[in-house]
Specification:
481 residues; mainly alpha; three-stranded antiparallel β-sheet; two-stranded antiparallel ribbon; 19 helices; 47% helix
Length: 481
C-alpha cells in the first residue's frame, strides 16, 4: 500500500483477499510499503498500517517490521535497485532521458484541456540523438527517465476480469519511471520489486487494471516473467458512491476505538463482495480461508452497508463471550470501561469483581452489539445503585411492604442457585400472594426498585445478574427511604 494515510476499509479488503489467497495456497503474504512519492508520505502511516493488519488478525509473513529474505520492504530503501534497473532500460533503448521542464509540461496540459483532449506527454525527448542528450547533460539540465511505450501489447489473463489488453501507447504519452529526485514511480518500482521478491500473484484494486498492459511491457523490456494479476472490484457505499475518507469514518483506527471487533469487519467486507459460494453472516477467518475461491470473485462493485455493522459485531461479540479465553479479555476491558465511565459515582468495588462482570456478560450475550453498550445509561443500574424513594414505589402499588417482604423471602430461599427461568416462575406465584396488585405492576415496581428505570432486561434477569445479596440490599434501601 501507499503510505499517504492510514488503513481504511478498502485497503483492509485488498489486504484480506491477498492474505486469504496466500493461506489457501500455503503461500506467503507480503506487506511492501510504497513511499516513493515523498511529498505525500504521512509520518507514522507505515507503522499504523502494520499495526492495523496485526489488530485485524491478518499479519503479513514478511514486512518492514518483520523482515524477511527479500528486504528491505520499504521502497525508499531500495533506490539503488531502481536506478540500476532504469540504467538497464536506458542501455537497451527501452527508456530515454527527458529534459522537458515542468513549465513545458504544464503548457502541454493546458493546451490539451483547451482543445478538450486528455492531457498526455508528446514524447518529444524520445527523438533526441545521443549527441543531443550528451549536450544537455553537459549543460547540467534536470532530467527524468521515461519508458518507451510500444504498440501491439499482448493480451493477458486477469484472475478476475479474464482476458484483457489496453493499447496504452494510443492513449498515453511515455510514462516517467524515474523522477528527478532519484525516486521511481509506481510503474517501475512495483515491477522491479515483484521480480526481485519472487512474487507469484498480485491482487490489487481494479483502478490498476488499465496500467497492467504498461507493466507487462516493462516486464518484456527487462526479459522477466510477470506474476499473475487479479484486480479486485471497487468497494463502494451501499448507494454506489465512493467510500468517503474525509470524515475519517472508514479508517480502521476509528472502528477499533469504537469497540468493533476485527472479525466483524472482515466478515462484513467479504459478505458484501464475492469470492465465496454463498453469502453468510458470522464467518470466522478460518471459514473465510476454507471457503474462498478466486474464480468466484465477480467484476461487480461490492456495496458496503455500514449500518449493518452493529449486527455483524453482535454475532461476533456473542462468540467472544462464549469462548472462555476471549471472555477473560472482555472482562478486563469491561472493568476498565466501568471505572472510566462511572469512576466518580462511588462504584462499589464488588461490581468490579470478575465473577460479577462475567455474569453480566453471559446474561447479556446476544443482546448487545458493542461492549460499551453495557456502560450506557440503560445499564447504569449494574454499576451504580439507583436512588428510588418509597413514595415512587407507592404510586405503582399500595402493597409495597408486602411485595418487598415476599421478594426478600424469595431471595433467602433461592440464594443457592438463581436462574432466569426459575425466577420467572417464582415471580408469577409471588404475584398471586398479593391482594390487588397486577403482575405487570409487580414487575414495574421491582424494576424501579432494582434499576431506577422503566425499561431494560427482564426483572428476573436483573435479579440473577445483581445476585440475592444486592437485590435484598436495594429492596431494603427503597423501602426505608
Amino acid at each position: 500500500p501507499v503510505v499517504t494515510g492510514f488503513l481504511h476499509l478498502g485497503g483492509l479488503r485488498t489486504a484480506l483477499y491477498n492474505y486469504i489467497f496466500a493461506k489457501t495456497h500455503q503461500g506467503t503474504f507480503i506487506l511492501r510499503v510504497e513511499d516513493t512519492d515523498q511529498n505525500r508520505v504521512v509520518p507514522g502511516a507505515a507503522e499504523g498500517i502494520e499495526d492495523m493488519l496485526d489488530w485485524a488478525g491478518i499479519p503479513p509473513d514478511e514486512s518492514p517490521r518483520r523482515g524477511g529474505s527479500f528486504g528491505p520492504y520499504q521502497q525508499s530503501h531500495r533506490l539503488d535497485l531502481y536506478r540500476r534497473a532504469s540504467d538497464v532500460l536506458l542501455e537497451r533503448g527501452a527508456a530515454y532521458r527527458c529534459f522537458c521542464t515542468p513549465q513545458r509540461l504544464q503548457l502541454l496540459k493546458k493546451e490539451a484541456l483547451r482543445s478538450q483532449q486528455t492531457p498526455r506527454y508528446d514524447n518529444r525527448c524520445r527523438h533526441l540523438t545521443p549527441t543531443e542528450v550528451s549536450e544537455k547533460l553537459s549543460q547540467g539540465l534536470d532530467w527524468v527517465v521515461r519508458f518507451r511505450l510500444e504498440k501491439g501489447v499482448e493480451p493477458f489473463r486477469d484472475l478476475v476480469y479474464g482476458w484483457n489488453k489496453h493499447e496504452v501507447a494510443d492513449v498515453e504519452g511515455d510514462p516517467v519511471i524515474l523522477k528527478g529526485d532519484g525516486f521511481p514511480t509506481y510503474h517501475l518500482a512495483n515491477v522491479v520489486d515483484d521480480h526481485y521478491m519472487g512474487i507469484s500473484h498480485v491482487l490489487r484494486g481494479t483502478e490498476w487494471l488499465t496500467s497492467t498492459s504498461k507493466h507487462l511491457l516493462l516486464y518484456k523490456a527487462f526479459g522477466w516473467d510477470p506474476p499473475q494479476f487479479g484486480h479486485l472490484p471497487l468497494l463502494l457505499n451501499k448507494d454506489g458512491g465512493k467510500l468517503s475518507k474525509r470524515q475519517g469514518d472508514i479508517f480502521l483506527e476509528r472502528f477499533a476505538r469504537d469497540g468493533y471487533l476485527p472479525e466483524a469487519l472482515l466478515d462484513i467486507i467479504t459478505n458484501c463482495g464475492s469470492g465465496f459460494a454463498e453469502k453468510q453472516m458470522g464467518r470466522t477467518l478460518e471459514e473465510l480461508i476454507s471457503q474462498f475461491e478466486i474464480g468466484r470473485i465477480t467484476t461487480h462493485s461490492a456495496l458496503l452497508d455500514l449500518e449493518k455493522l452493529p449486527e455483524f459485531n453482535r454475532i461476533h461479540l456473542a462468540r467472544h463471550i462464549e469462548n472462555e479465553g476471549l471472555r477473560q479479555k472482555l472482562i478486563r476491558e469491561l472493568q476498565l470501561l466501568v471505572e472510566h465511565v462511572y469512576g466518580d459515582q462511588q462504584v462499589d468495588q464488588e461490581v468490579l469483581e470478575k465473577e460479577y462482570v462475567e455474569r453480566v456478560l453471559l446474561l447479556r450475550k446476544g443482546h448487545i452489539s458493542l461492549l460499551k453498550n453495557l456502560v450506557s445509561s440503560d445499564y447504569s443500574y449494574l454499576w451504580v445503585r439507583p436512588s428510588v424513594s418509597r413514595e415512587q414505589l407507592q404510586t405503582i402499588s399500595g402493597e409495597v411492604d408486602e411485595i418487598g417482604k415476599l421478594v426478600l423471602g424469595l431471595m433467602t430461599r433461592q440464594a443457592a442457585v438463581l436462574t432466569v427461568e426459575e425466577l420467572n416462575k417464582d415471580l408469577r406465584s409471588l404475584q398471586k400472594q398479593t391482594k390487588e396488585t397486577k403482575y405487570s405492576s409487580v414487575m414495574k415496581l421491582l424494576r424501579l426498585a432494582l434499576s431506577g428505570q422503566q425499561h431494560g432486561p427482564s426483572v428476573a434477569e436483573m435479579m440473577v445478574t445483581l445476585g440475592p445479596k444486592e437485590v435484598c440490599g436495594r429492596i431494603h434501601k427503597a423501602l426505608s427511604s
